[in-house]
Amino acid sequence: MGMRKYILRRMVGVIVVFFIILTALFILFRLAPGDPVSRMVDPSLTPEDAAYLIDQLGLNQPLGIQYIYYLKNVFTGFMGISFHYGQPVTEIILDRLPNTIYLFTTSVILSALLGIFMGKIAAWHRETKIDSVMTIVALFCHTLFLPWLALIMIWFFGYRVGWFPLSGMISPEVWVTPGTSSIIKFLDVLHHMALPLLTLMIIHYGSYLLIMRSSMLDTLNEDYIITARAKGLDEKSIRDHHAAPNAALPLVTSVGLSLAFSINGGALTETVFTWPGIGRELVFAVSSNDYPLAQACFLLIAGVVLMANLVVDVMYAYLDPRIRY
Asked: I want to staple 200 with a disulfide (CB 3.0 to 4.6 A). Which of 9, 107, 142, 149 is the partner?
């Protein structure tokens, strides 16, 4: 099968799966107990006002009619109005999405680069103390419970030592002060970003190291590595220019999917660090039965992950000439 036919076939599969997810989300959110109106902030809302609000939101329509409007909104790019904020869902997502991308894309890239580098060294020094220590540290990091680690980081570096802010993304006093330079604002964001970034790097670093180490060990037994040694190439050249690039191929899938899943913002991370991103907004939308906002967040995540799978498969074919479709 040619590459073009493979991509077209996969695109059809992506569309079908996306439509199934779209329908499942509509059904699941309507089956959830409670209604958005009962969870709204104003406790003095009268039954008449509540009935009027339900009518305005379209929640008194038959499910079939709601589903038609739901599909129309999705395919026209209008994801509805948030029940809680009273704003278009698209505006809310576009406001939160960059915050999530800054934090999680940076953490994935940095932890992957560190994991690849350390995994390469661990495999090259296999069955030595260096390999043992690196592997044990990687396993420890890989099995850490993220909320526990996040709270420890906040308690020690934020509260006890006082090096970093305890929560949030910016210091309001810095941003509202007239004449504050863009560099100062950027450094303020980095200061707030340090703790969640370090936490995510510690969590992800271990898995990348272990994958790279395992792949590197398999690659070092290949015939072309033996041939390179027979040609008299130095060990560093064999490791860095022959073994490592081929061993890093399995990480293409891992890093690609990690970048895709980072779009959900890691609900736990953003909630613990009070980081204003998609993950934190998703948790709030689900807990408050804000159907349009929750559905839009889930659809965004599903769409990005589905496309990431397709892109990773295509990249594999270009990176590894042995793969044919």
From this structure: 107
pTM (two decimals): 0.76
Average pLDDT over residues 292-300: 83
Is 220 a member of any domain?
yes
Contact in structure between 273 and 167 (CB atoms under 8 Å): yes
Residue 45 lies in a domain: no
* Structural domain includes residue 50: no
Q: Determine whether 166 is exposed, middle or buried from the number of CB atoms within 10 Å of its CB (0-12, 13-18, 19+).
A: middle
Report how far apart, in Å, the C-alpha atoms of 174 and of each of 60, 69, 186, 205, 225 are.
46, 43, 10, 33, 56
Dihedral, CA of residue 27, residue 32, residue 37 and residue 42, to nearest 10: -140
How many residues belong to the chain? 325
Read off the pLDDT of residues 96-111 as tens digits, 9 standing for 90 and up: 888 888 888 888 889 8
Look at the chain and report how many structural domains it folds into: 1
For 22, residues 6+ apart whose C-beta sits below 8 A from its C-beta are 71, 74, 299
Spatial neighbors of 57 by CB under 8 A, at least 6 apart, are 36, 37, 83
Is there a domain that residue 137 lies in? yes
